[in-house]
């Protein structure tokens, strides 16, 4: 069965089920029913990753600060204010009306405990790497005040406080040597707008609006999150009224079902970007063609990124020319761009000594149509591409072994609109993702994390992004688009960072 026929079959099945099944999701019972493909097994975001867990954490937990997704400014949340005593000492004051879902008041002791625990190696938290980068210790200075002692200057402290660390009661993960890292995995006690009513791992999570929440209460009373691995089943459930919201929807299916009266298609921006990384350093071949800047520039000119964005990604996707998302802080769009120009690409290849092109092994693990489009465009200018489409694990292993001359990669920056979230991981010399071998660039990127001066950081990233573009270490491709299918009765705002915020949903 072809992809087109299969999609038509799924849509037809959805219509049939819609006609035979009564509606029961939506505003009548003030319950928002959500479908997620990935299994939900652990409710404690301090011990998880993935987009699904971030979405849930924003429902069940609150952080010290909020980050405005539009302005990228920090807003008070549990912390009401902060003061830099010096470059490595930060004082925070807290609200005095925050309670955990069991009614226990939150104090500075709870906050200090959480941060000190996460920073300690024995916690084995997924967030340890984030906090250990900068935190020496958190010290209680009063019932609702505390002091953070930093290891060194680190300009992204507030960002980390807003995005990653979920607060727990002192002693949550064990005391006197009896460590329990799964203490909040199922019976989560958070401080967010919703509290956990019931949880069947891998099946269903039921959340109820928490009346003691310190912030603006969400509009919808109950949220039910169901694990439905099959997208076709999700579509059928949406059309029959069994669910109200699904995400990560393929564009053509979203557009098709969104054109019916029983579903609406919403498309919003996403901070994920796609790109080709080139072995400029010559790890795979010290004298290979990719070590020549004109060859790398030719590759950039050969790629019709606008058409890829429009027809293969769609929605809000756009062609990009920088090694970062245009919405990220420090992502200077004045960097050199390489417009689609196959003839210019051929000329540069000839100037570089490859008038007849060369053989190139290109690795990819996702978005096969886009990878094939890249291969086709390169082939059109004389580069004979061998596309190796593999599992992500295989690509990671080969990249770590320095066996990949070029690969199609993507990066979502964890929803963080700051170039720091993509620069360090890809251009630090300790990262196998860095195939430039450029020591000066690595020092430049890291220096942006050694100053708290935002204008200086912006200037550093501007220089770094410009250097990456001038030397064509990457061939940037496109940004991604977030596609949703929702009930026609649902109001679901989409934000510039592409992170779904279900707590902001309401009924029409």
UniProtKB/TrEMBL annotation:
Coiled coil: none
Residues in Solute-binding protein family domain copies: 73-417
Main localization category: periplasm
Location of the protein in the cell: Periplasm
Entry-linked Gene3D superfamilies: Dipeptide-binding Protein, Domain 3, Periplasmic binding protein-like II
GO MF annotation: an example: peptide transmembrane transporter activity
Alphabetized Pfam families for the sequence: SBP_bac_5
Keyword Membrane carried by entry: no
Signal peptide bounds: 1-25
Cellular component aspect of the GO annotation: ATP-binding cassette (ABC) transporter complex; outer membrane-bounded periplasmic space
One GO-annotated biological process of the protein: peptide transport
Assigned protein family: Belongs to the bacterial solute-binding protein 5 family.
Protein's name in the database: ABC transporter substrate-binding protein
Lineage: Bacteria, Pseudomonadati, Pseudomonadota, Alphaproteobacteria, Rhodobacterales
